[in-house]
């Protein structure tokens, strides 16, 4: 089955700096890769996703890149702000009727003011 | 107010007791999921259901059971066979048209 590894487990950056979180997946059939943000005490929420037919997707200060050959994808946050502090989870699945998402172990991002 | 509701938010049980966690959604989503969240391990899939009266095991289904008698409801029973039941449990739903999961606020189960 699919296995997703996520690094780093914790990341501390200065406000205004960029943050990068990386994930690798094992199943080459996976073709859907979302990222979820979980603020302290709150539910996870989708912030961006990418499908295997594109290599990069941007939404304001966040972007995701995908390298299908190497089976890894990354989340990039630019101009970080204190409200970006949260746990971020990557996930992978086959884009079929089940969307059986397999999540990474999470990255705790701390943005220092 | 549309959304997905889990109850109870906190639950304490003695070892050996079964406990049922409720998950209700009024989003008219067809698919529903149960995940378990442990520190440092991310979210692990327990069970999922794409349609009423049908469900499939996830990666860690042992010691858990579910039912899907109504589209809106997907309760999870943590049985006494689950060796380490203390955890944070998240329910989610998804419309068939997208891959986005909508999560509930979670239920924290502590087995004493």
Q: What report would you give on this structure?
A:
The complex is a heterodimer of chains A (113) and B (112). Chain A is mostly beta strands. Chain A has strands spanning 4-7, 10-14, 19-25, 32-38, 45-51, 56-59, 62-67, 72-77, 86-92, 102-103, 107-112. In chain A, the strands form 2 sheets. In chain A, strands 2, 4, 5, 9, 10 and 11 form a 6-stranded mixed β-sheet that branches. In chain A, strands 1-3-8-7-6 form a 5-stranded antiparallel β-sheet, with no helix packed on it. Chain A is globular. The termini of chain A are far apart. With 112 residues, chain B is an all-beta fold. Chain B contains no helices and 11 strands. In chain B, the strands form 2 sheets. In chain B, strands 2, 4, 5, 6, 9, 10 and 11 form a 7-stranded mixed β-sheet that branches. In chain B, β4 (31-38) and β5 form a beta hairpin. The radius of gyration of chain B is 13 Å and the shape is globular. The relative contact order of chain B is 0.33. The chains are: A mainly beta (113), B mainly beta (112).
